[in-house]
Queue: 2 jobs
Job 1
Amino acid sequence: MKMRMRTLNSNSLTSTHARRQPSAVFRVWVICACLIANHASVAHQQKNAVTRILFNENTGNIEVMHRFFIHDAEHAAGVIFGERQTLVESSESRQLFSSYVMNRFSVEVTYSDDSREDLALNYIGEEVDGQFLWVYQEIAAVENVASMTIVNMALRDVWSDQSNLVNIERDDRIYSLTFDGAREVLSIELDA
Amino acid sequence: MTEIYRIALIVTSMLWAVSLQAQGIQQTKGSFEDKFRQLEEVLPTANIYRNAGGAPGHEYWQQEVDYNIDATLDEDNQRLSATELITYRNNSPDTLTYLWFQLDQNRFRSDSMAAMSGTFNGSSPDADSNDPARISLGQLRSLQYQEDADLGHRINAVSDSRENALVHTVVGTLMRVDLAEPLESGDEVDLRIDFEYNIVNGDVLRPRAGYEHFPDDEREGGNYIFALAQWFPRLVAYTDYEGWTNKEFLGSGEFTLEFGDYEVSMTVPADHIVSATGELQNPNDVLTRKQRDRLREAETAERPVYIVTPEEALANEAEGSNQTATWRFAAENVRDFAWSSSRKFIWDAKGHTQPGADQELVMAMSFYPKEGGSLWSEYSTEVVIHTLDVYSRFSFDYPYPTAQSVNVGFVGGMEYPMITFNGPRTELQDDGSRTYSLAEKRFLIGVVIHEIGHFYFPMIVNSDERQWTWMDEGLNSYLDSVAGREWDAEIPWGVEPRYITDYMESQNQVPVMTQSDSVLRLGPNAYSKPATAINILRETIMGRELFDFAFKEYSRLWAFKRPTPADFFRTMEEASGIDLDWFWRGWFYTTDHVDISLDRVYQMRMDTEDPDIDFSRQREFEKSLPPSLYVERNRAEGLLTWVERNPDVRDFYDDNDQFTVTNVERNRYNSFLEGLEDWEREVLDRAISEDLSYYIMEFSNHGGLVMPIILQFDYADGSSEEMRLPAEIWRRSPAAVKKLVVTEKEIVSVTVDPLQETADVDIENNYYPRRIIPSRIESFKSQGGGSLVGRDIMQDIKTELDTDEDEDEDTEQ
């Protein structure tokens, strides 16, 4: 079974390429699933996550591996789904959290001929490893990817100070994107 | 004209001189990079205040500031007003004409530099698709709150001991107070400041301290927990290395302060329980006889004893009081003072004894509302004691009479001397019980260890967190992982080197040696990466014995003093006898990562020079090569060669191949032996008799960070062996090195960093011969994890998401 994900702002994927000057007063949406505000200042909880996007030559797949601190994820899941979630104990909680992550993450590739495609990443699963919850997605590798445009809002709609690092690994090169502040959509050119 | 020309010339040459100095030593030919260049030009020059060994110099000084504060808490208006009397002793060699104060509450003003320089954390509107912008209700709430709440310190009066008003100038989160007359070295001055402020709503702004409201409590209007910190005008540290450390508080870099003695009186509602830095001075006034008896009992108890039981706290929070009570606390030689007050507090305590220490009895105490519940009663106080136990072993005896953990919901965790605020809570279930998840339990244990650990770093070893966050967060995260593993080895505490590799290979990062407010990704930069580095230093570079001695020496030298990074770097070298400049340079001053590759292994065997042996070995080698494919195929087809068809035609060469030894070679061998010196003969004989295997291994460094090369050899007989090559192997060629390895047994495979202790980011090139390293997803699938795909839960997942109006998802089979 495949699950095609389109995120809340998949539209903005394309718009980043041709954004006009605002000429009118724009609408503002308010996001309700929100714990807190700007100045979260804690000496311990580390609101950061890492996503690896690996062009895996051994399997011929593009693999997406999201890593979250379990404690962060558990609190976020409680807020998002409106009831208590226990990520270590409950596989249902973990899968619920995965579905949330996948809905806050999308990849659009631009091919060397300038055509574009939203990658329909397949859900693989999730697992607990140490302090971390990993969420896995993948898709058969596509050729001639010239650039990637990524949306990563996971936990960032819960905590505005959440920072998500994305490392793209292809041909022994590493490309990094950091989603923090107002950065919801980021693009990066990949070397040929 | 000439004059203008001359002046211009001087300016130009001055600029040139400055830039030359800033660049320091440079490699201007070739591309060689000296990864082992000593830090001499990077570290500040040693002086009489800080010596070249990293210890306080013979003229080391620091200021002393004593405070006497009278504070009144207005619960109904969440407001604090106070008078503070300050005695400032100038131990510096300098004359001071003004003093600087921190007014940290000013950070919350809507016009503060923190607020004005904060960037928008939402999305922009999109003209093309008519997408609206998004902003969270939380962000709107905090904007509205900061506009409405009238936050920040209000300074009502500043005067000297003769009640002369002193000129004071507020600069953001700082205030300069001009002294009536210059304060000479060795003199002291008394000041008085009257101030008040509205306490920050913790649920809105998530500050380090503020108030938490419980509107649903039985008492009309609900209840509050007040966490009061960074609450009084505090003297900015005046130092030998920076002068006044008067840098605006932007919210990220915390602070450093001066040590001094405190006497603080806190007038609060009479039914409140107060937890504070220091020791309670008037228990007879504010505690019942029963509570005092319980406190005495707790001193020697096996398990924490309730001073206020859950039932008493519940009754307490339902009522309220119109009376007030004044709690008096005193603390000696501390660098700050914080407190907490609430009628909701359950209070438990247990004595911790340190035999032979200056402070033999330490009261470990926890204060928490019913919302903290059994999670807190089970673990908080015990974890406090465990932390003191472990940290003291690695540094020095805990010098203070109390160590407290207070449950404040909006704080993740925050530390002050003798008191910490920690966030974890239980969940109220429908049946009225309170439970907590495994993750919450682990978080409580972890956060209490971490914050209590801060009592040592930086509350006693007084580094400046605003400049060098890693100095307390990194060192403390290292030690909290040590204490965590000693609490329960089954709990994953992190700080394993492999957890930091994704961060270290990423392109978006800054060196650890970056001022706190400018750091990108503070968590990995100031906590995990330095903590991982210190762990690696201990376990892999220095070894536990040398590391622990040096770290303890650093802690001892700088307890109640003010270390800088150079002092830490120098002490660790000085006490261990190990040159670590390359390590500090690589891990703290650059953004290099570790990726060592074993590119090639050559196997060799020593020639004996004896033709009767060597020639037959060569014959064997020749035989071991695969035969000609074409000849084999001819044979398979049954083709006979001319020689095979004409066996009667033979000569000498049919019986003697090219490896046949004649006396020409034997004579040459004998004269070779005769030509050898005695020692040469011995070496040759031994090498021949041992007949060892010789391997040349070629390594390259892809990450840039030089590290030891840790090797595991797997032998043909199934055994294996480890070899550790020090990082210094890279000193003359940091990009690639070769090593000759001699073994008795034949090697079949080699692994670099087999236990993954160096944070090497690419494991695949650690193997020779190469092996395919499955990715996480591949491993996950091979363990059957992939079978989760397609379960019915997928349907449930989609159903849940439909309730979220922000999303647009579709599914295809």
Job 2
Amino acid sequence: MDTQTKILTILRGVAQKPIEPAPDESLFDSGLLDSFALPDLASALEKEFGIHIPDRDLTPTKFDSVERIERYLNSRT
Amino acid sequence: MAFIRAFGSYLPSRVVDNAELAALVGADPNWILKATGIEQRRYADPSETVATLGTRAAQDCLDAAGLSAADIGLVLVSCGSNERRFPGPATEIASNLGMSGTPAIDLPLASAGSLFALSMAAGLSSTYRHILVIGTEIMSRAIACEPAGRDTAILFGDGAGACLVSADTGCGRIVDSIIRSDGEFAGALRLELNSTVYMEGRTIILQATRKIPRAILELLERNGRKSDEIGTYLMHQANLNLITRVAAALVVPESRFFRSIERYGNTSSASLLIAASEWWHTNGRKLSAPVLLTAFGAGLNWGAVLIDSYTE
């Protein structure tokens, strides 16, 4: 499973619905996820990719789209 | 040792419900309730100031403690919404209470300010004996009640809370506390001069949901306690969803978290002591189990205070 597919699987789990965001679509401004889903998203990414996201990296802009999440994950490997 | 002797509070009489506010900010009242858990908040009268609100709460606390202003050795006042750059409201509150010469210190920390003051009071009580801690805010003058200010205007209300920390005795013993600061996100929640509150809500939610449970668990662990041993959690009333998140992170029933946010909204640094006062009076002015206070806010500043029940 490639990274974007893993991210989409996580997003659907967090959203608890079968969302299909475009890679560059804002997850929050579009209403696909609400603000309080962000902590769950960060925790799920840590678990799936075996990383620890430090507090200084916990900004919405880093996790606002599939592309941005993938870019962040690539920066951590 | 330091003890919690009494709590007090003051809420302005004007009630602003979601229907009234929704019309001003262009929102659906039901959306406000769903997004925040807030049904109504209080707004101060134009004649009131943060000092007059703080004085009322402090007097309520002194009356509950059975002490007078002459007994107080130190006044600590948290306020992020003071009407002027300086002086802060501390000296005016002390003067209004009839004190003269008693040191009165301002802590302009906003939301976590009263928790920081409580932690500091615990450390200073052996020197000053009776310390009056006050949180007072008029946030309604720091928001824009118009569509452009919707996301912050729906949150805030006005009020004041107070707590008396004594070296001698009280209904609760302050066991330990943790206070933490992180300037990395200082710009994410701020009130500039001659402006209204600016808040990057998602950043604050992300940081708060991580930092609050971490501080609580660190405090509990170093005191050999488990989260389910705490009878009541008294948390800064910022947002109902945040309270729900913190309860889930600690794996404790949400019912352990006392809530007043439905009625008063987010009163910044006053909210923790307003909630504590209401809870304390409702429970016969005593603690029957350990209590944990926690807050998070601009700075970023956050922390937790652990209190055990105490009887002489």
